[in-house]
Structure formats: C-alpha cells, structure tokens
C-alpha cells in the first residue's frame, strides 16, 4: 500500500509500505480521510521536532522513517483478538495520543507522550493499526471527513477548557491558522461574547470571521494591542497564543486585562527573548496546553455530533495522497489562503 513517509526535513516520500501485523489489542482502520496538521508542517519544514530520528520512541518503539498523519478517520477493517468494544464496519475517529496511562487523565499526558503519525506510523496511508483505547466511534450525524477534524477540534476544546472561560467573557485569538480557527469555534460554543481574531493575512482573517470571530484585526496594519484596547478598554478576559512567535506571545499578554488569562496553544519552533516582568507588572496569568485528555476528545466527538461545534468551514482543499507534497505541504507553506487540507485515502464518507 502507498504511504507518505517522513525521512527528514523537506523529505516526505509517497512510497510502497507493508501493512503491519495486527496486535491483539489493536484495531486496523481503513483510512478514509486524513488532515495535514500544523505540527506535520513543522516537521516537514523544520524537523525533526517530535520525530524520533536518532533512537526508537519510548512508547511506539519506532523511529524514522515513518508514516506521517495523526488527524484521521475511517472504517474498522479488522480487530485484534483481545478487542471487545469495536467491530469491523464501525465508523471511527482516531485519538493519536499515546501515554503511559499511569496518572489521572488531566496530567497523564505531561508524564510523557507520543503521537501516532509523529512518533510512530500514522494515517497517511490505506490501513493504520491503532490501539483499541485510541478508537472513538462516530455518531451517524458525522461523516468520515468530519471525523478527520475531531483531532484539531479537540486541541481547541482542551485549550478553551484550560482557560476557564465564563459566559460573556471577551477573547482574543492571536493567529488564525487551523488551530486558531477551531479555537474561535470552541470559544464561541463556550459562551464568549466577543472574539477578536488577529493575523497578518487578510484571507485568513476573513475565514476567521466566517467561523465566528466578532472582530478582526490585521496586525501588520495597526498596533494589535492598541486596536484590541479600542474595543475592550482594559483588555480581553482571555487571550490565546496560536501563532508560535515572539511578537504574538508578548502581545497576547499585553492585550489581556489584569488578572486575566493567556493560554499558549501553539508549538514554538525555538526559544524567545522575553522578560517575565511583563507578567509581574500586569498580573496576567499564563497557562498552556498540549493535545487533549481522552474525555475532551470524546466531548469533541459528542459536541460535533450535535452540531454545537462546527469546524467544517476550515476545510480549504481535498487532495490525493500522490499530491501530498506539492498540493499539501508546499501549498500550506506558500499559500496563506489554505487552512485545512484533507488527504483522500479510501474517500468513503
């Protein structure tokens, strides 16, 4: 079968791979659709970031080269001998997060984690073997394309939960790439009264407006902090840093009101120069989040199933696996009108 295999920076190859033997606790998923994530793009442009290139990953036992793809959904092809709650034909989404499972789910991921598709073989292929506990059955109201959006939507659900948002709170989202867009969706569903989206791309800002932002600010044309405070005199209750660069990190804090909360959602490619006195002088609280708990993933499935979370508008293109480099990764690198690109595998709905 074909797979998109990561070998190194700017070295992603579509090539033939063998289907791995199915373990007794695993489910084999016939992949229908898989999304290209910002983390995937980081690996393509700058990696290895998460990729276990020098030694085998602790949880997966794998190292590069490996098949990418951690946002995917499909249909169960077969199940291992010890799998009880899942059967062939089930329509499923995959939670790609692997942990040791030794602690409460709220802190378990911080005890060490790996990702299917980043630390071990993933979903940019026809068949993917996944541990039973990482399989989530989709409601009939969701298509398999929707199922490929559960993972990024869950990132935003976890970030919004981390912010302790209250009904009526005001929010600023710095960065309107795919995760910024779904953060807007999640904040709106959680009761934010005003959602200010900031970016350098007018195209992305218009997409943010379509997905629920009440106000948009082009940070390249005006001072973003001053623009926010023209709308909210004392600053916003909560800011989300979803750009992963030094300027937006500092701006997110400065735009948040005293005793408000800034949530770091993005992955930073490197260190930044920052003085913590910015916090001391303003009283802003900083928190951060990575991925999601199993409960947040299930909540995301449920809320998407009822229509309370609608991330579907962020899809900007659907491509074939053979075109994943040129029309996928390169397009995302060079075309800011692109947000979420789905890769068609079986193409089932």
UniProtKB/TrEMBL annotation:
Any one GO BP annotation for this protein: butanediol biosynthetic process
Names of the cofactor(s): Zn(2+)
Source taxon at top rank: Bacteria
GO cellular component, one term: cytoplasm
SMART domains: PKS_ER
Record-linked Pfam families: ADH_N (PF08240), ADH_zinc_N (PF00107)
Domain Enoyl reductase (ER): 8-343
Protein keywords: Metal-binding, NAD, Oxidoreductase, Zinc
Keyword Zinc: yes
SUPFAM superfamilies for this protein: GroES-like, NAD(P)-binding Rossmann-fold domains
Molecular-function GO terms, alphabetical: (R,R)-butanediol dehydrogenase activity; zinc ion binding
Keyword Heme annotated: no
Family that this chain belongs to: Belongs to the zinc-containing alcohol dehydrogenase family.
UniProt protein name: Zinc-binding dehydrogenase
Organism: Pontibacillus yanchengensis
């Amino acid at each position: 079968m074909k797979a998109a295999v990561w070998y190194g920076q700017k070295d992603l190859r579509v090539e033939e791979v063998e289907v791995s033997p199915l373990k007794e606790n695993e489910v084999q998923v016939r992949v229908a659709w898989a999304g290209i994530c910002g983390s995937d793009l980081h690996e393509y442009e700058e990696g290895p970031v998460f990729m276990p290139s020098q030694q085998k990953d602790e949880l997966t036992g794998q190292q590069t080269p490996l098949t990418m793809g951690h946002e995917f959904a499909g249909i169960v092809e077969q199940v291992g001998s010890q799998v009880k709650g899942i059967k062939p034909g089930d329509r499923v989404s995959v939670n790609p997060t692997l942990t040791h499972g030794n602690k409460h789910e709220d802190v378990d991921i911080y005890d060490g984690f790996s990702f299917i598709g980043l630390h071990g073989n993933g979903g940019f292929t026809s068949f993917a073997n996944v541990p039973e506990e990482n399989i989530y059955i989709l409601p009939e109201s969701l298509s398999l394309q929707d199922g490929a959006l559960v993972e990024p939507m869950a990132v935003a659900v976890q970030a919004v939960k981390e912010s302790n948002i209250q009904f009526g709170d005001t929010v600023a989202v710095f960065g309107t790439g795919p995760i910024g867009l779904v953060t807007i969706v999640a904040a709106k569903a959680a009761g934010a009264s005003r959602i200010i989206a900031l970016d350098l791309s007018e195209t992305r800002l218009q997409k943010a407006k379509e997905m629920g932002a009440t106000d948009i600010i082009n940070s390249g044309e005006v001072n973003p902090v001053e623009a926010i405070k023209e709308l909210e005199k004392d600053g916003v209750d909560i800011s989300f840093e979803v750009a992963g660069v030094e300027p937006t990190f500092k701006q997110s804090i400065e735009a948040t009101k005293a005793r408000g909360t800034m949530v770091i959602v993005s992955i930073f490619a490197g260190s930044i120069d920052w003085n913590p006195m910015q916090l001391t002088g303003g009283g802003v609280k900083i928190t951060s989040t990575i991925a999601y708990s199993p409960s947040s993933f299930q909540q995301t499935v449920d809320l998407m199933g009822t229509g309370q979370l609608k991330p579907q508008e962020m899809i900007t293109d659907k491509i074939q696996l053979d075109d994943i480099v040129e029309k996928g990764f390169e397009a995302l690198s060079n075309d800011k009108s692109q947000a979420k690109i789905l890769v068609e595998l079986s193409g089932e709905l």
